[in-house]
Design goal:
With 258 residues, the protein is of the alpha/beta class. It has 2 domains: 3-178, 3-Layer(aba) Sandwich (Alpha/beta knot); 190-256. The chain has helices at 3-8, 20-33, 49-67, 75-79, 112-124, 142-147, 164-178, 197-213, 222-236, 240-256; strands at residues 11-15, 38-41, 70-72, 84-88, 109-110, 129-133, 150-152. The protein has a 7-stranded parallel beta sheet. The longest helix is centred in the N-terminal third of the chain and has 19 residues, at 49-67.
């Protein structure tokens, strides 16, 4: 894979990884497929001797990725600068076609090929994107799934879960097949770019606060309303100038309401 591909491949985010050896193998998989940006969210064992444990399976090819890894305390912090985050899941019960038995609150589940297509489209627009992987034993929690743009499931026969590094390798391989690491530079005007996930979160928090001040939504139904509003905003593919407009309205409400 070319140097340009390495610069535009999706980032890899590992949420609460338990074993440093798995982190090392994931870094090796990234090196194989030309990905470079690794973020660890609250790793259970990291630093000092644990870095040495991760270095062996990473091999010299993945060691630089390990040393340059970003450490975050929460998934929200890791996602804030991104425009697209695809969370991985092995659990499909009640999630088929994005209409789960719990009312369809889960995001649409993509196949690996569909996920690669989303990442390719993001790369064509110079948008920051990442693949998100949960802990080896439990996967992503519901509130973490909510923060992702879409979900990805790798179909398997028999056992539904995969080794962490295997999952990283398979999805990055699909990305390489789709050309997701080879996007040409297509700069957009700053105020016309899509909002980042951090900006989306800020807007939703502001809207929720002002709607609560207006008594526009009952407190016990607020999470449902905000999930629906998040889905609406994502279908609209909110742009930065639209974000500025809505944030301006929130500020006006905040100043004028008692």
């Amino acid at each position: 894979m070319s140097e340009q591909a390495a610069n535009t491949a999706p980032a890899i985010i590992l949420v609460r990884p338990r074993l440093p050896e798995n982190i090392g193998m994931a870094a090796r998989a990234m090196a194989n497929m030309g990905a470079r940006a690794l973020t660890l969210v609250s790793p259970l064992r990291w630093g000092g001797p644990y870095l040495e444990k991760a270095a062996a399976p990473a091999t010299p090819k993945g060691l630089e990725i390990l040393r340059a890894a970003t450490i975050c305390s929460s998934l929200a912090e890791a996602l804030a600068p991104l425009h697209l985050a695809l969370g991985t899941t092995a659990r499909l019960s009640g999630v088929a076609a994005g209409h789960g038995g719990d009312g369809g609150w889960r995001n649409r589940v993509l196949t690996p090929a569909e996920a690669a297509g989303e990442l390719y489209a993001a790369g064509r627009q110079n948008l920051a994107a990442a693949l998100v992987f949960g802990p080896e034993d439990t996967g992503l929690e519901n509130d973490e799934i909510e923060q992702c743009s879409h979900l990805v499931n790798i179909p398997t026969f028999g056992l539904s879960s995969l080794n962490l590094a295997q999952a990283v390798l398979l999805l990055l391989y699909e990305c390489s097949k789709s050309g997701a690491g080879n996007a040409e530079e297509m700069p957009e005007r700053q105020n016309r770019r899509p909002v980042t996930l951090g900006e989306e979160r800020l807007l939703l928090d502001s809207l929720r606060a002002e709607l609560a001040r207006l008594d526009a939504i009952p407190a016990d139904r607020a999470p449902w309303y905000m999930r629906s509003l998040r889905r609406f905003l994502r279908r609209r593919e909110l742009r930065r100038h639209e974000f500025d407009l809505l944030m301006g309205l929130c500020r006006q409400l905040r100043h004028k309401l008692p």
